[in-house]
Amino acid sequence: MKIVLFWHRRDLRQHDNAGLAAALQSGYPVVPLFIYDREILDLLPSRRDARVTFIYDEVERLARQTEQAGGTFLAFYGKPLEVFAQLVQQYEVAAVYTNEDYEPYATVRDAAVAGLLHQAGAELRAYKDQVIFAKNEILSKSGTPPKVFGAYSKAWLAALRDEHLAPYPSRELFTAANLTQLPKAAPRPTLEQMNFERLEQEVPAAELPAEELVRNYHNTRDKPGLVNSSTRRSVHLRFGTLSVRELMRQARALNPKLLNELIWRDFFMMLLWHFPYTATESYDPRLRQVPYRNNEDEFKAWCEGRTGYPLVDAGMRELNQTGYMPNRARIAAAGFLVKHLLIDWRWGDRYFADKLLDYDMAQNVGNWQWMAGTGAVAAPWFRVYSPQSQQEQYDPTFAYVWQWVPEFGTCEYPKPMVEHKFARERAIATFRAAYQAKE
């Protein structure tokens, strides 16, 4: 009996799933599949990672739902090529359906898997699911990727139609008639068998945020001291436990600012797909040779939230303790690292990659390069935010700071590790020299 495999990746849900809906309409019985990819997991700095625990719990939830519907759910811990080589030998696989992933590793991996499947007489079919517009769907009039967000957003909104946000009928199609049970299917690995320890962090439910929160989003998003300052749905968008189309529909109806922020998400994914080298290298060639100071002691103090600037320190401490960091704290912390300490943006990018529950390469790289002034879309390299002004504007009562830096205002709290005026002048002079050297 021929089967179709549906390969879950960044789409850990059965509802409104583009690739899953296509698989369930393929005419073949479907077997959902997840691979704990060792090419990714073996690079993690710790075997206690809340993201792995979150993924594991969501995969087990999908497995239970699949079994309740009358099907078999497969899960493996290994390298995708090796897993698929085993599967095409064990089963008669007509095709593997999945949803597109735009990160550099994913595009290389998927090409390799497609080649392996082709040799076995099968094919890889990938569908757009985690964004509304991808790859070359939004281009400038000259046919090139837009590098100005305003132009991209205008074109994005002009191209949007109701059908782009319409849900896919994957949940309705997820029935015993479209699934199959595999005899002697391999048992799914446990966290312990994968040598991971369980580590849980608080994550909101994978459902749409309350309407009142969304309506007030533009007023609260830059106030980190508020309990509900943002939707906090970025983790669910990252792992696909919430459909981006669901949140887009809500945002379009209730708050254009939230919709705009979600368009940024599409924008950064488009840029990373077009310019994959920006994952590890500055987009602007004139700023690839900035003589960063890269002082390891200062970097350690930044990581631990001991800079002497309370908004920066509060953000870093919340990140270390919860895996979450409000937007305004991310801006303050990133700007301070690159401009005040003159530490390479890639150091900060890697640290965030290790700590953020909602880590997404496209968003992380895009925002770090924006702050550093080195990206395809970037703040001017000569813009240096004042941490004190940021504090006064966005947390004037120190509500956020008191929550995470209880020793602030006492002799135990460190003095600022660098004076703003001096750091600003040093940063501008350093970046100007690098910028002019390449002209």
Automatic annotation (TrEMBL):
The positions making up the signal sequence are none
Q: How is the cofactor bound?
A: Binds 1 FAD per subunit.
One annotated GO biological process: nucleobase-containing compound metabolic process
- Has keyword Lyase? yes
User: Which terms are listed as keywords in the entry?
Assistant: Chromophore, FAD, Flavoprotein, Lyase
Task: Say if the entry is tagged with keyword Transferase.
Answer: no
Query: Binding positions for FAD?
Result: 217, 230-234, 261-268, 358-360
Which parts of the sequence belong to the Photolyase/cryptochrome alpha/beta domain?
Answer: 2-132
User: Which coenzyme or cofactor does it need?
Assistant: (6R)-5,10-methylene-5,6,7,8-tetrahydrofolate; FAD
One Pfam family this sequence matches: DNA_photolyase
What does the record give under GO molecular function? Answer: deoxyribodipyrimidine photo-lyase activity; DNA binding; FAD binding
Which family is annotated? Answer: Belongs to the DNA photolyase family.
Q: What is this protein called?
A: Deoxyribodipyrimidine photo-lyase
Recorded source organism is Hymenobacter metallicola
Taxonomy of the source species = Bacteria, Pseudomonadati, Bacteroidota, Cytophagia, Cytophagales
